[in-house]
């Protein structure tokens, strides 16, 4: 029976939460920011309670007394109308009898007058038949008058209806049938800003009743995602779409507020709740191609394990926003120039660089990572591998001065 106060459509029912709380929504066709929205979506608990209270108030003893008094007044009006109908039938019968007497009293030889009186008599008979039919119809439609016993039972029903309505043996179907016997429609209009709803009850018979219902205000969520995860999503959203972010969160063994694994929908909902912008590809790409480890391995003609080793050694630079996030390697022209087929003059093997500098392999790699030493990678030949352009630690320490 519920309909939308904005567009007039019939409302649909939905159930939400672990307790399957009922609610009403209007599946309208309004479009806001490119997305379809409902005309209204409201919980049904307060709405149903208000309608039930209005029904019980209408069937309370005071309401039944008023209804019985109105029925008695209506019965009196019908009796008056029925008495008028009886008088009209009696008058029609008198006119028909009078027309018959006049027809029979005329001289038969006066045929012109006789035909006129006969026509009048037939007209009066037709009017009498119509009056009798109207009287019979009104008598059939006359409702049965309430006896004293009927009146007592109706008043007792008003007192017992509250307990019957709330009884556990009364099913939802029973309550719906009782509602439909008295109500034709419930028009619901929701005012979100004021946190209230306006209910217009249209009773059978045409009368309307307006009811204002206060709606519960939104409470802050008791269960929420931890701040560390929200901050990480905010950082990742600038570089990755929702599906990739969900994979990163799952690899870090993070979970939603309810303990579930992340999906793209979970990440999207979390972004909207905390006003985190979604990933948008840049209009102008920066210098160099941004590649994953697998793509970089294919371009450089090596294995992914080698790329990971180079990343750990610092031979090539990359970024990983958080553990579990994919590595991002930007291959610029300068970085591509570090991969050659033959080593230029002055570049040493790792062992030679260690002997020349007098440091360990790890120290050499650290200095390459800091940019203190220039390094290239020979891609072909028996001596392929890392080459270091190194100078002695103290090139002029033992020079002989004149």
Folded structure, characterized:
By secondary structure, the protein is of the alpha+beta class. Among the domains are: 62-150; 220-281; 285-336; 338-402, no CATH class. Helices cover 47% and strands 16% of the residues. It has 13 helices and 14 strands. The strands form 5 sheets. A 4-stranded mixed β-sheet has the order 1-7-8-9. The protein has a 3-stranded antiparallel β-sheet with strand order 2-3-6. It is rod-shaped, with a radius of gyration of 47 Å. The model has no long low-confidence stretch (mean pLDDT 80).
Which keywords apply here?
alpha+beta, 13 helices, four-stranded mixed beta sheet, three-stranded antiparallel beta sheet, single chain, 402 residues
The average pLDDT value, as a whole number, equals 80
Number of strands: 14
Poorly predicted regions: none
Cα end-to-end separation: 111 Å
State the helicity in percent bands.
40-55%
Described by strand count, sense and barrel closure, the largest sheet is: 4 strands, mixed
Instruction: Compute the number of helices.
Output: 13
H/E element string?
A: EEEEEEHHHHHEEEHHHEHHEHEHHEE
